[in-house]
From TrEMBL:
InterPro entries per the UniProt record, alphabetical: YjbR (IPR007351), YjbR-like_sf (IPR038056), YjbR/MT2646/Rv2570-like (IPR058532)
Protein name: MmcQ/YjbR family DNA-binding protein
Gene Ontology MF term list: DNA binding
Domain of life: Bacteria
Signal sequence extent: none
Alphabetical keyword list: DNA-binding
UniProt xrefs under SUPFAM superfamilies: YjbR-like (SSF142906)
Length: 113
C-alpha cells in the first residue's frame, strides 16, 4: 500500500484527521487529536498495536519496533507495499480503535464513535 492508499484507508475511519506535526513529508493520522498511524518521509509506516500484536509482529520479523514509539507498542514497516492491503487496512482500523477507546466518553460522542 502506498502513501495515497494509506491516506484513503485512514481517512475513511470515523473522526480521523490528517496532520503534519513533524513536517510536510510526514503524514500523521489522528482520532481525537491522538495519533494512530504515521507515514514517514521515506514511505515507511508506523502504527499502534496491542501488546500481543506487538510481540508477534516484532518476534516474527514482520515488523520492527517503531523508532521513538516502541515503548508505547507501536510497530514500523519499512516497506508497506510488501504487505497485503487488506491486512494492513485491518491493522489501521485496530490502531484507530485502540486509540479511540482511550478517549473520554465526551470526546468519543463528539466524534460520533
Amino acid at each position: 500500500m502506498d502513501r495515497a492508499g494509506i491516506g484513503k484507508v485512514c481517512l475513511s475511519l470515523p473522526g480521523t484527521t490528517l496532520d503534519h506535526p513533524f513536517g510536510d513529508d510526514h503524514d500523521c493520522y489522528k482520532v481525537g487529536g491522538k495519533m494512530f498511524v504515521m507515514v514517514g518521509g521515506e514511505g515507511s509506516v508506523s502504527f499502534k498495536v496491542s501488546e500481543i500484536a506487538y510481540e508477534i509482529l516484532t518476534e516474527t520479523g514482520k515488523a520492527r519496533p517503531a523508532p521513538y514509539l516502541a515503548r508505547a507498542k507501536w510497530v514500523n514497516l519499512p516497506d508497506p507495499d510488501a504487505w497485503d492491503d487488506e491486512e494492513l487496512a485491518e491493522h489501521f482500523a485496530i490502531a484507530h480503535r485502540i486509540i479511540a477507546e482511550k478517549l473520554t466518553k465526551k470526546a468519543r460522542a463528539e466524534l460520533g464513535l
